[in-house]
Amino acid sequence: MSSNMMIGIDIGTTSTKAVLFEENGKVVAKGSEGYPLLTPTSSIAEQDPDLIFTAVIHSVKQVMDTSGIRPEQVMFVSFSSAMHSVIPVGQDGKPLMNCITWADNRSAKWSEVLKNDMNGHEIYLRTGTPIHPMSPLTKLMWLRHDNPDIFEKTSKFISIKEYVFAKLFNRYVVDHSIASCTGLMNLNKLDWDEEALQVAGITPSQLSELVPTTYRMDGLDKTFAAEMGLDPSTPFIVGASDGVLSNLGVNAIEPGVVAATIGTSGAIRTVVDHPATDPKGRIFCYALTEKLWVIGGPVNNGGMLFQWVHDELAASEIETAKRLGIDSYDLLTRIAEQVKPGSDGLLFHPYLTGERAPLWNPDARGSFFGLTMHHRKEHMIRAVLEGVIFNLYTVLLAMEERIGRPAKIHATGGFSRSPLWRQMMADIFDQEVVVPESFESSCLGAVVLGLYATGKVDSLSVVSGMVGSTHQHTPVKENAQIYHQLLPIFIKISRNLEEEYKAIADFQRSLF
After folding, report:
1. DSSP letter string, 235-246
2. DSSP letter string over 141-156?
3. How are the residues of the chain apportioned to helix, strand and coil, as percentages rounded to the nearest 5?
4. Total Cβ atoms within 10 A of residue 323
5. Dist. CA 19–CA 414, nearest whole Å
6. What is the pLDDT of residues 448-490, one digit of tens each?
7. What is the rounded CA–CA span in Å between residue 261 and residue 186?
């Protein structure tokens, strides 16, 4: 076993993962710990920051214990983290409320005000974060106006990664990548945007110190070092956000290579060499390093919709799967496979939790369109899977206006384990889809960034030697033609229903 080991940590929405790698990218050990997303109402999505901090400590301890390596063998620890979280902390560094996650919708009203009445589009063009309730800028507006007691007491507004680093190193730092997805940082200046801070009602002193994603932290708290099984002299690399590091971890950093990810939610992203925003406000632009930027769009509704179909529509199939001793999701996929591409004209708009890209509309709602007496449950299952990919493809169409047609699609996330879903992507995108071997792409991206930060490699392209490919799918011409016919209908419906989305969302809100 190599004496040069590195740990990549990914602080995700449902769990924190730690992966121990050899210097060549080979996985040695994995650890993870989950935590709940607290959703007492449909618009609240919070987490307990201390549970997440504990999950970081425990997942590192797991990899150190299971691998049996010595603490001095760890060259560095490097971080990836979910985006758009906000934790107001007091003078003592303790949270004044739970961590508000990207999925929290309580700032929807302020998002609308910012978009329509407060120069929101101009702020987006400078900061790269689309105006939407996920954005920390709108969350701060909500706190300022609707929770003035907490807002007034707040000493710092920080993300979950900043909270973890503040506890480990007693210092508030935020990397350019996490800062670039707050809606508060001017992308060209790599500094806080004056107008955005004014709208939020805060000063730069209430935010952390801005540092590059390659920034090295020394002086790890000895107590936490002991709990993790690490040497206190181990350097920690601040790292970046999970989205941009996932691109790096699947070797999608060359021009024209697009990473399409579907986990619980989903995203589609590509790397460019300068900050680029969209005149129509449909895509984000976040930092990877000072010279590499990731543009793309996140979708709220990914694998969670397959889970919704599974839990709400497939009770008898789950029972059958149990009797046969097979995975119930695999059985649903087999059932969906029996239906022709296009689900015999049944379309599904996958907006069960509102939508980010490309609509940026928290009021968007899901629907089946084209239902006839001919359609059965298996059509609905297939239409849901197709709807998720259709939606992701509409984001790619917006990106193509900036980058042209991509050269290659790298598909990752839980969905990439399903041959049917992978082929569907190749057919709907009408493009070859490659699945890289690395499933823990954000952790791998974090350690590759760490190798670059510590001077072990002089280019991020070293990742190409660490990522193999497991599957390749070429579009089936007949299928691609069917999807090509259905796509304009899919797009037109979602664009035409904006008023109805708002009306039904207002009605639903009035019930709670």
Report:
1. -EEEEEEHHHHH
2. HHHHHH-HHHHHH-SE
3. 45, 20, 35
4. 7
5. 17
6. 999 999 999 999 999 988 887 778 999 999 999 999 999 999 9
7. 27
